[in-house]
Design goal:
It is built from one helix and three strands; from the N terminus they run E-E-E-H. The chain has 147 residues and is mainly α. Strand 1 and strand 2 form a beta hairpin. It binds zinc ion (ZN). The site of zinc ion has 8 residues, from loops.
């Protein structure tokens, strides 16, 4: 079975157990299978040494160590995940800010253009009004005098 990975499933939750390395003084660098169900989800902290040999220290101490180790690993994973999510959110926020700035400058340009066209239109209307007034006065002057 050289090179083949043995897959161990937890008997309680039918989950694939993970392989961890012990860093305890009693069992340094000894590899073990560990049930990945977290304690907060009703996990039981089941473990088994990969080499199948019995543990060289008391199971209580071992379990406590493994639980703490696994909790720490889980928290580290969660921290990494949260950091990734945070950086994702930050980049999204930057994108939104950039878009907002672009929209704002576009709106400002539009507003300036609108203002200019409104000024132009009012000038033109005033001009038209005076020209019409001039013609009305002209007509009134020439035709009004006859009647
Ligand atoms: Zn389990």
């Amino acid at each position: 079975m050289e090179g083949m990975e043995k897959v161990i499933y937890c008997k309680y939750y039918a989950k694939m157990c993970i392989k961890l390395v012990s860093h305890s003084i009693e069992n340094p660098y000894r590899v073990f299978y560990y049930c990945p169900t977290p304690r907060s989800d009703g996990g039981h902290g089941w473990m088994e040494w990969v080499d199948g040999k019995p543990s060289s220290y008391s199971p209580n101490c071992k379990n406590r160590y493994i639980n703490r180790r696994s909790d720490c690993d889980e928290l580290e994973k969660l921290l990494e995940f949260t950091k990734e999510q945070l950086s994702l959110c930050e980049s999204k926020l930057n994108l939104v800010e950039m878009r907002l700035q672009l929209d704002t400058s576009n709106l400002q340009n539009k507003l300036v253009n609108e203002n200019m066209s409104v000024k132009c239109l009012s000038k033109w209307l005033r001009w038209v009004f005076f020209v019409r007034l001039f013609f009305v006065l002209l007509i009134w002057f020439f035709c009004g005098c006859d009647s």
